[in-house]
Design brief:
Blueprint: H1 17-29, H2 49-73, H3 83-100, H4 106-124, H5 136-152, H6 185-189, H7 199-233, E1 260-262, E2 273-279, E3 285-290, E4 292-293, E5 297-299, E6 307-308, H8 323-326, E7 328-336, E8 341-344, E9 350-354, E10 360-361, E11 367-373, E12 378-385, H9 390-395, H10 402-408, H11 416-429, H12 434-448, E13 450-451, H13 464-472, E14 474-475, H14 477-490, E15 495-501, E16 505-507, E17 512-516, E18 520-528, E19 532-536, H15 558-602, H16 604-618, H17 629-640, H18 644-657
Parallel strand pairs: 13-14
Antiparallel strand pairs: 1-5, 2-7, 2-17, 3-15, 4-5, 6-10, 7-12, 8-11, 9-12, 10-11, 15-18, 16-17, 18-19
Helix pairs in contact: 1-15, 2-3, 2-4, 2-5, 4-5, 4-7, 5-7, 5-15, 7-15, 11-12, 12-14, 13-14, 15-16, 16-17, 16-18, 17-18
Length: 662
């Protein structure tokens, strides 16, 4: 039987079972709060008092919650190949810290990881990638896990003077009929009833829970409001991202290298974010150009011709790329969200690419990563643009160099009626310059064609441009842009097809363009003497087919959407506060019940007191909160006609409060 340690006899008031349980918990720990000394001969450190009160089950639950919250917090960190293993190692370290660091109070460990997680969310949070409200779910789950872990941590007990041991007192014989049946006084009378002096402690526990919830909500609010602004305005270091998914390469992926563009396939156009771009200009993000057409497929005649970028990521401009030599410089930062990318978007005309990956370039300046990149890859591009007006383009009237004409003015396979249509439109408009011809053809397309992602595919074996212009008259950007390029070449204007992405949506809260799969685009590029390549988007002139609302662009979310998220967080906080406080109170009652059961098994006075109180409840004479054991026992003796009960109560009070003999 364990050695009995009695409570301090210098107290002037009575002690209940639950109160003795609290005192016993402090005595067993060897200190009022904090960590106890190391056990001699043991490599396992003594647990702090809050860890002992928490128990194994609560500690494991806190460890799981901290592991989940820390995984959500570091989810915004983008790592390279094999980095996912490092991420899970960090999560395992957090879990082990909760379980193994027994000499450090549990609440300290949880608070530390809560602060670290909040800082990671603020700097690298998912709200900073332009994902809008979609990224808020991780933040909300992190806040709930963190708040639950903080609520589960036991509150610190007030410091008390360790009780002084006293000589053993002979145990009187128990006179209660069934001494094995016990009912916890803590549950019977509540934390503010018979647990003497514990009201302030529990009020402090409630304040701790409320403070934990309030602090978590405050961190979430800062992350949601300041995270996108601070995180996306910080410099983005080059990165290769996570391990690419080889199953995502193919013609349906607009970030996969395609030497040919098959016009008989439908593109993949979902709402998934493929990248975000910070740029001081609005531009198409180009991935490839095509100059050869066979009636159904576009091909880049340079084929697999690649060269390694120069020192420092310098891009060698093509001879016909005049903007790369005398344009205005701008810089763009790209962050990829796609699972696989080996065709890197750029803003034409790129002159330098800063990346950790080994990169190649095509003769047209397109950039290719032979070792594909994954989600989180980041790189920056320095590009040059020639800013020209419509009047300047209209006034260009210079001969076209042979090297440009030989490649971009060669006749392409098409039908007679396509050729006749192009010539008729230009003649009817009286267009004689390159720019006038472009405008005339775009105007005709806007008046006679419709845009729809649900347009039917051209039948096999027919000219796709001919079928679009004369049969279906409904198509998407690839068909529209291809038709313009083919007709321009028929009327003597050098042109090529470019593919990539539209600028996307500007997220004003982060200052980045959010580009989705549905922003995959095709447009025409026209070469002008003394200017170079100029993009033209005929799709913008073509009206939508059917219900325009079905293809309408999503509005930027901005701070209005974040306000909605904050309102939701506030509602969760209103509900979580009382729930967390009730959970905390339940845990405290459970801990007191366990301590009382231990005392009942080890100390005769506690066991007799509990039996007397149980008997009092059975006979309709419960013990009052202010009543001593002896006074209660005297009344029980009168009510039951058992005078020995009074002797039992007097023995308990004498044992606890009578000064020891000198």
């Amino acid at each position: 039987m364990a050695e009995r340690v009695d409570v301090d006899r210098s107290r002037s008031g009575p002690t209940t079972v639950a109160g003795a349980a609290v005192e016993s918990g402090r005595v067993a720990s060897g200190t009022g709060s904090g960590s106890g000394p190391e056990r001699r001969g043991s490599l396992w450190p003594t647990a702090t008092e809050d860890r002992r009160r928490a128990g194994t089950g609560v500690t494991v639950a806190v460890a799981v919650l901290i592991g989940l919250s820390f995984r959500l917090a570091i989810g915004g960190l983008e790592v390279g190949e094999g980095g996912e293993l490092v991420v899970w190692a960090a999560v395992a370290t957090a879990v082990l810290a909760v379980v193994v660091l027994r000499s450090i109070p549990l609440r300290w460990v949880v608070r530390s990881y809560a602060l670290v997680g909040g800082g990671l969310l603020l700097r690298f949070g998912v709200m900073g990638t332009g994902s809008g409200v979609a990224g808020a779910s991780d933040v909300l789950w992190w806040s709930l896990c963190t708040a639950a872990a903080l609520a589960l941590c036991p509150s610190p007990l007030p410091r008390t003077r360790p009780p002084q041991p006293r000589p053993r007192t002979p145990q009187p014989r128990s006179v209660v009929r069934d001494p094995g049946e016990h009912l916890d006084l803590a549950l019977q009378n509540g934390l503010g009833g018979q647990i003497r002096g514990s009201g302030g402690q529990n009020r402090g526990a409630g304040a701790l829970v409320r403070g934990a919830v309030a602090a978590t909500v405050a961190v979430v609010a800062v992350v949601l409001l300041a995270g996108p602004w601070a995180g996306d305005r910080a410099p983005v270091a080059p990165s290769n991202g996570s391990t690419p998914d080889p199953f995502d390469r193919g013609p349906q992926n607009s970030l996969s290298v395609q030497e040919q563009l098959d016009m008989t396939r439908r593109p993949r156009l979902s709402d998934a974010v493929v990248m975000t771009v910070r740029s001081d200009i609005i531009s198409f993000w180009r991935t490839a150009t095509y100059d050869d057409w066979d009636g159904s497929t576009w091909t880049n005649t340079d084929g697999g011709s690649y060269r390694v970028l120069g020192p420092g990521g310098l891009v060698a401009p093509a001879p016909d790329d005049l903007a790369a030599r005398r344009g205005d410089e701008s810089t763009q930062e790209f962050r990829l969200e796609s699972r696989f990318a080996n065709s890197l978007p750029i803003a034409p005309s790129a002159v330098q690419v800063d990346s950790d990956a080994r990169l190649l370039q095509r003769p047209d300046g397109s950039i290719v990563a032979p070792d594909a990149m994954g989600r989180g890859a980041a790189y920056s591009v320095t590009s040059m643009q020639v800013r020209v007006t419509a009047n300047q383009l209209a006034s260009v009237d210079a001969p076209i160099p042979d090297e440009v004409a030989d490649r971009y003015l060669t006749p392409v396979p098409t039908t007679r009626r396509v050729r006749t249509l192009a010539e008729r439109v230009v003649t009817d408009a009286g267009a004689t310059t390159e720019y006038a011809k472009v405008q005339a053809l775009e105007d005709w397309m806007g008046q006679n064609l419709k845009y729809s992602l649900d347009a039917p595919l051209a039948p096999q074996g027919v000219d796709v441009v001919d079928d679009f212009l004369f049969e279906s008259k409904v198509g998407w950007c690839e068909q529209i842009a291809s038709s313009l390029v083919v007709m321009l070449r028929e009327v003597g204007v050098p042109a090529r097809l470019a593919t990539g992405f539209a600028p996307g949506e500007l997220d004003r809260s982060s200052g980045r363009f959010v580009v989705r799969e549905r922003d995959a685009h095709a447009w025409a590029e026209v070469w002008f003497p003394d200017v170079g390549w100029v993009p033209f988007d005929p799709t913008a002139r073509v009206p939508l087919a059917g219900d325009a609302a079905s293809s309408a662009r999503e509005l930027p979310i901005g701070f209005a959407g974040l306000a909605v998220v904050l309102l939701f967080v506030g509602a969760v906080a209103v509900l979580a506060g009382p729930l967390a406080q009730r959970l905390h109170a339940w845990r405290e009652r459970r801990a007191l019940r366990r301590a009382a059961n231990r005392l009942a098994a080890e100390r005769w006075d506690v066991r007799v007191e509990r039996e007397l109180e149980e008997l009092g409840r059975e006979v309709g004479r419960p013990r009052a909160p202010h009543e001593t054991v002896s006074a209660h026992a005297r009344d029980l003796a009168t009510v039951t006609g058992r005078p020995e009960l009074a002797e039992q109560g007097r023995a308990v009070d004498d044992h606890r409060y009578r000064p020891p003999p000198l």
